[in-house]
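User: Run a structure prediction on this.
Assistant: Running it now.
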Amino acid sequence: MHAAVSECFAKYPFAKGTAYQRFNCIYQTHFHYGPAAMGAQYYLLLQIDLASLNVGKDVDSGILTPEEGRTALHWVTDKAYAQASQHSWMTAQPKRN
């Protein structure tokens, strides 16, 4: 799986005109290999992939510059991991009556 994702990075640089293709390639690879290869964070990573597709569309259409796209990707990733961390912390806490 890692080799296939690396191939996506090499084949589609993060630039206007190729950003959506890059993230679609990564999404398709993650989806293909599934939770067995990706582990417990599978659904979180797919959520990030789908958000990345939107950023890729915005970069390709010129709504965002590649630098603005990178900033948006960091924000999406940070937000998703924060939500996942909060969810796992909350589910790990004992229930109180």
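The two ends are 45 Å apart (CA to CA).
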